[in-house]
UniProtKB/TrEMBL annotation:
GO terms for molecular function: DNA binding. InterPro entries: Homeodomain-like_sf, HTH-type_TetR-like_transc_reg, HTH_TetR, NicS_C, Tet_transcr_reg_TetR-rel_C_sf. This is TetR/AcrR family transcriptional regulator. Residues 1-22 are annotated as: Disordered. Residues 46-65 bind DNA.
Length: 221
């Protein structure tokens, strides 16, 4: 009886693992594609390399994503989705206006610092003039909640007298994003030009503090 009882969980576990295997394969392909695309861009990336890195094969990649361009778009969407999900992990609506704005700026800056692959993907897609991202059915939906959060912070800040009036949330977010993106997308050239290691923790903190003062200084009435 003891043997028969122990055998049942083993069978149930192995049977239950099979439906999840396609998800694992798909995830492995996406992880491998992120590395390959970030390093070589869309044109330079090779499906053979992605298949080898993911432990899959080209047939599976084409079955899941259609072609290399479809895989590229999925990797892009996943990168944006991950950023938004991490950003929304904190309930900014419960923060005071200045605190919430500081959080958004700090998150954006540190996300760029932690994810150089994200910078590389965006640089590559901009070279293509966002021709692939334009086909995305979800990218704008990802940013709508963010604009709602920023608008709420601005409105509450205006009522409390800590923010100026008539600030466009899209323009403000573009500025916040630029302060982090430009720094890290040009980190090596800037470090060389100015003779500073701008990747060091000290220099990153200096830059983040400066960026916050620039934005908050603009927002003050």
């Amino acid at each position: 009886m003891t043997k028969s009882k122990s055998a049942k969980p083993v069978k149930a576990k192995s049977a239950g693992a099979k439906p999840r295997q396609p998800d694992v394969t798909r995830r492995n392909i996406l992880d491998a594609a992120l590395v390959e695309f970030a390093a070589k861009g869309l044109a330079g990336a090779r499906v053979d390399e992605i298949a080898a890195r993911s432990g899959s094969n080209k047939r599976m990649i084409y079955e899941y994503f259609g072609n290399k361009e479809g895989l590229w778009l999925t990797v892009l969407e996943n990168a944006y989705t991950r950023m938004r999900e991490e950003e929304h992990a904190i309930d900014v609506a419960r923060m005071k206006p200045e605190e919430g704005m500081r959080y958004l700026m700090e998150f954006n800056f540190k996300f760029c610092s932690r994810n150089p692959e994200f910078i590389a993907l965006l640089n590559a897609e901009n070279l293509h003039k966002a021709s692939y991202l334009k086909d995305s059915k979800k990218i704008r939906e990802l940013y709508t909640p963010l604009l709602v959060v920023i608008t709420d912070l601005l409105q509450r800040g205006q009522k409390e007298g800590v923010f100026r009036k008539n600030v466009d949330p899209v323009e403000l977010y573009t500025t916040i994003a630029a302060l982090g993106f430009f720094y890290f997308s040009n980190i090596h050239t800037l470090s060389t030009i100015f003779g500073r290691n701008l990747l060091s923790a000290k220099q990153q903190k200096i830059r983040l503090d400066h960026s916050m003062e620039v934005v908050l200084g603009f927002l003050r009435p």
